[in-house]
Structure formats: C-alpha cells, structure tokens
Amino acid sequence: MTDPVTLDGEGTIGHFDEKRAENAVRELLIAVGEDPDREGLRETPARVARAYKEIFAGLWQEPEDVLTTTFDLGHDEMVLVKDIEVFSTCEHHLVPFRGVAHVGYIPSDSGKITGLSKLARLVDVYARRPQVQERLTTQIADSLMKILEPRGVIVVIECEHMCMSMRGIRKPGAKTLTSAVRGQLRDVATRAEAMSLIMAN
Ligand SMILES: Nc1nc2c(ncn2[C@@H]2O[C@H](COP(=O)(O)OP(=O)(O)OP(=O)(O)O)[C@@H](O)[C@H]2O)c(=O)[nH]1
Ligand SMILES: [Zn+2]
C-alpha cells in the first residue's frame, strides 16, 4: 500500500512507498554489517523512510504546482533572485550536493512575472529528486521558459558534491558551476549584465 504525499498543504501529488523504503533500509543496514535490531537502530529504517519521503518529495510535484501566482505588471526588465539555498541528492551515489542557485529572467513583452518565492520553490521541485547538477540547472531554465514565456532565462548553480568530498576523490571544497541560458539572455551583453549581478556581493 502507498500513502498519498501532501506537501505543506500545497498540492499534492503522487505516492511514496514508505514500507518498501523502510524494508530497504533495514536490508542495507544488514548488508553493511550492522544489526538493525539493536537499540539505537530500531527506529532508523522508519526514520530514514520518512526522511527520503521529504528529500525526494519533488518527484511528486510539477513546476506548474508552484509557479501558480503570475501577474502582468508590465515590468519588462530583468528579475534575478540569487543565493537560493540548494539541497539535492546526487543520483549516482545518493549522497547530498549543496550550494546555491541564481535564477533570473526577462519577462515577456506583456510583463508576465511570478512571485519571487516561487522561483525558490521551483528550485526545490527539481532539487528534491535524484539529480545531476546539469539536469537540475536545465530543468529549472526550461520550465521557466515554458510557464512564464519570458524573453530570456538564466540559471547558474554552484554546488559542493559530497560524493567528491567524503568519499572517492575526496576533494572537499571543490565547487561545480553549471549554467543554462535561454532566449535573450544568450546575447553577450545581457548575459554579461546578469553574470555581473550574480557575481556582485
Ligand atoms: N556530471 C556530473 N557528474 C556527477 C554529478 N554528481 C556526481 N557525478 C559524478 O558521477 C561520476 C560517477 O562515476 P563512476 O565512475 O560511475 O562512479 P565512481 O566509481 O563512484 O566514481 P568516483 O566518484 O570517481 O569514485 C563521478 O565522476 C561523480 O563525480 C553531477 O551532478 N554531474
Ligand atoms: Zn555522486
């Protein structure tokens, strides 16, 4: 049986098999040589299942669920929200990557814009899925293009990947930067303006 997932009272969406996740975590604990029945671990499979339900909640959301509020303000200059905290999960190792996203767009001729918080919510929709940073970046850009029909979009993401810090190559502090630019933001001057805003303190 699966439970419906409800996210902060904001729409809905889909199913997460908590029991199956719990069983899998129990198996994993046995596989690594632990005793899942010892005192400290007894509640862990259920706890981890609940944590994954939250961490992967974006699998059950679509961008349209969060880009709900749009206004026609007639504002046709660039809007940029920078330093949006990102917590995501690397789909190769299922460990976190974290950092910041900068999301900007130039509204459509009619000036169709969205609430600023909705840009951060959009980042979360895609970050709360098993991800690679490149896909996270392009999904945010493409969904904004589709829904707001802006003249241009820029998304820049800077993250540290725990799979490179705590294991494997073990290079803590290395940052990965990815960008996606669409429409008018591909123009050299416009892109340079956006980048200078992103880089400014
Ligand atoms: N392009 C890209 N690569 C990623 C991302 N997250 C993790 N990786 C890389 O995915 C690759 C997986 O490589 P594999 O050789 O299959 O796995 P591995 O043996 O665990 O690799 P190492 O991490 O080098 O030990 C690694 O090079 C990771 O650094 C991401 O968001 N984007
Ligand atoms: Zn990884």
UniProtKB/TrEMBL annotation:
The keyword Disulfide bond does not apply. Signal peptide: none annotated. Keywords: GTP-binding, Hydrolase, Metal-binding, Nucleotide-binding, One-carbon metabolism, Zinc. It catalyses: GTP + H2O = 7,8-dihydroneopterin 3'-triphosphate + formate + H(+). It comes from the Bacteria. InterPro entries: GTP-CH-I_C/QueF (IPR043133), GTP-CH-I_N (IPR043134), GTP_CycHdrlase_I (IPR001474), GTP_CycHdrlase_I_CS (IPR018234), GTP_CycHdrlase_I_dom (IPR020602). Pathway: Cofactor biosynthesis; 7,8-dihydroneopterin triphosphate biosynthesis; 7,8-dihydroneopterin triphosphate from GTP: step 1/1. One of its GO terms (molecular function) is GTP cyclohydrolase I activity. Homopolymer. Belongs to the GTP cyclohydrolase I family. NCBIfam families: folE, PRK09347.1-2, PRK09347.1-3. This is GTP cyclohydrolase 1. It comes from Streptomyces coeruleoprunus.
